[in-house]
C-alpha cells in the first residue's frame, strides 16, 4: 500500500449542505400540499332518483331468502337422491350376489345328490350281480327235468322254488325302489321349480316397490317445489 494523506472533514461545510437539503425537501412538501389544496375536487351534486325497481327492500330480501332456501332444499334432495340411488345399487348388487351363490349351492346340492344316486346304483348293481351269481351257483346242482321235480319233490325242488321266489322278490324290490327314486326326483324338481318361481316373484315385487317408492318421492318433491313457487309468487293470498 502506498502513502496516503488523511484530510480532516470540514464540519461547517457539511452542516451547510445538510441544511440546504432539508430546506429543499421542506419546500417540495409545501408545494405538494399547496397543489393538493388547489386541485381538491368540489362537492358532487346528483339529482335524487328512485332505485331498486318496483319492489321494496323487504320484498327483495324475502325473494333472496326464498331463492336461498330453494337452493338449499335442492342440494339436500340431490344429496338424498344420490344416497338412495347408491344404496339401491348396493342392495341390488348384494341380491345379485346372493342369487348367484344360491344357484351355485343348488347346483352343488344337485351334483351331490346325483353322485350319491350313482354310488347307490353302483352298489345296488354290485349287490344284484353277487346275488345272481350266488343263485346261479345254487341252480347248477338242481335237476333240469320238470317231470322229475313233480314226480320227486324233494329238497332240490324246494331250494329251486326258494331261489326263484327270491329272484322275483329282488326284481320287485328293485322296480319299487326305481319307481320311488323317480317319484322323489320328480318331487324335488317340482319343489326347486316352485322355489325359483317364488324367488323370482319376490325379487320382482321388491324391484317394483323400490321403483314405486322412488317415483312417489320424486312426485312429492316436485309437488313441494311447486307449492313453494306458488307461495312466493306475487299476488299469492293463500
UniProtKB/TrEMBL annotation:
UniProt KW Coiled coil keyword: yes
Ranges in a coiled coil: 82-125, 167-201
Keyword flag Coiled coil: yes
InterPro entries assigned: EPSTI1 (IPR026185)
UniProt keyword list: Coiled coil
Taxonomy, superkingdom: Eukaryota
Protein name: ESIP1 protein
Gene that encodes the chain: Epsti1
Amino acid at each position: 500500500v502506498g502513502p496516503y494523506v488523511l484530510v480532516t472533514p470540514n464540519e461547517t461545510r457539511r452542516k451547510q449542505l445538510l441544511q440546504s437539503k432539508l430546506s429543499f425537501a421542506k419546500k417540495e412538501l409545501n408545494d405538494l400540499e399547496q397543489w393538493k389544496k388547489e386541485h381538491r375536487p368540489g362537492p358532487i351534486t346528483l339529482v335524487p332518483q328512485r332505485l331498486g325497481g318496483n319492489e321494496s327492500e323487504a320484498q327483495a330480501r324475502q325473494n333472496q331468502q326464498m331463492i336461498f332456501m330453494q337452493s338449499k332444499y335442492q342440494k339436500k334432495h340431490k344429496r338424498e337422491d344420490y344416497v338412495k340411488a347408491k344404496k339401491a345399487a348396493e342392495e341390488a348388487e348384494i341380491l345379485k350376489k346372493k342369487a348367484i351363490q344360491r344357484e351355485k349351492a343348488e347346483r352343488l346340492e344337485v351334483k351331490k345328490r346325483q353322485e350319491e344316486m350313482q354310488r347307490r346304483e353302483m352298489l345296488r348293481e354290485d349287490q344284484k350281480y353277487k346275488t345272481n351269481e350266488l343263485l346261479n351257483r345254487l341252480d347248477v346242482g338242481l335237476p333240469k327235468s320238470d317231470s322229475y321235480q313233480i314226480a320227486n319233490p324233494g329238497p332240490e325242488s324246494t331250494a329251486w322254488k326258494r331261489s326263484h321266489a327270491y329272484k322275483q322278490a329282488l326284481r320287485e324290490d328293485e322296480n319299487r325302489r326305481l319307481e320311488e327314486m323317480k317319484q322323489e326326483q320328480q318331487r324335488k324338481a317340482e319343489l326347486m321349480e316352485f322355489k325359483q318361481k317364488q324367488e323370482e316373484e319376490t325379487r320382482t315385487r321388491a324391484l317394483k316397490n323400490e321403483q314405486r317408492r322412488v317415483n312417489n318421492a320424486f312426485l312429492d318433491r316436485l309437488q313441494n317445489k311447486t307449492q313453494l313457487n306458488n307461495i312466493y309468487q306475487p299476488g299469492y293470498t293463500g
